[in-house]
Amino acid sequence: MKLHFSASEHDEAKLRLTQLTELYGQTKIEDATHIVALGGDGHMLHVLQDSLSYGLPVFGMNCGRLGFLMNNYENDDLPDRVAAAETAPLHPLRMTATARDGDTHDALAINEVSLLRQTHNAAHIAISVNDKQQMECLVCDGILVATPAGSTAYNLSAQGPVIPLGGGLMALTPISAFRPRRWRGALLPDDSRVVLDVLEHEFRPVSASADSAEIRHVTRVAVEQATDITLNLLYDPGFSLSERATREQFLT
To answer: Under 8 Å CB-to-CB from 197, ≥6 apart: which residues?
Structure first.
């Protein structure tokens, strides 16, 4: 087993990086068999994005504030721990955003694709699923499409549902919906293609983000699962994303 360690900029993560590389060495990512991410959920997303071209499994250990995607930190017997870990395969979302100048931009999201109003004017967004319009006009601050892994992040803060990993679903969740006032979103099969058209985009500008990649002044955003890409997260037995997603729904 050849481990490549990647740490966030947090002081604790950098300290842990020094300790772990002294214990186990540091392998260049191009020669590694596994990546160990040290930090919080934000750093895990960063590592997963950066590791797409390498196709390596990622074992995260929490050294930050939020660690839903991470295992607990321990430095003992790390190679054995990684070898015994359970694999949680994830497919990211593929966003294709069209800007008002006509250019298209592609980006991948592990947590969510979100649209947000850029000014004080509320966004007006038409929603289509699999080429069928489901909502003529959602008046809102924004809307997001979340993966199961991302369902406990921004999606949950926007009152969206928690989705267990492997549930075959993705969440479509409004952000501060004004009309229709009582619409709380939808659970969609994960093979759905969602198209979000920004109405009156000159007067009501909207930005689109795939995790941290942002496109300003979009007119249309298409979102679908990238089934051709599989990210493998590693978790200690009994500490899987599915089990934590279940527990999250009983927190008060």
So the answer is: 125, 126, 128, 219, 220
Instruction: Mark whether 101 is an active-site residue.
Output: no
Q: What is the pLDDT of residues 27-77, one digit of tens each?
A: 999 999 999 999 998 899 889 888 888 889 999 999 977 677 899 999 899
Distances (CA, A) of 216 to 31, 88, 92, 105, 201: 37, 33, 21, 11, 11
Alpha-carbon distance of 36 to 4, in angstroms, equals 6
Domain definitions of the chain by residue range? 3-90+230-248, 93-225
On whether the 93-225 domain is CATH 2.60.200.30, my answer is: yes
Question: Which of the following is catalytic: 41, 190, 197, 211?
Answer: 41
Instruction: With CA atoms as reference, report the closest residue to 178 among 128, 123, 136, 220.
Output: 123
Q: Specify the residue for token string 């006032």.
A: 181
Residues 153 and 240 sit within 8 Å (Cβ to Cβ):
no
Q: Give the whole-angstrom CA distance, residue 78 versus residue 193.
A: 40
Q: What is the mean pLDDT of residues 4-32?
A: 95
3 state DSSP class of 41: helix
The CATH code belonging to domain 3-90+230-248 is: 3.40.50.10330
> Quick check: 142 and 205 in contact, CB under 8 A?
no
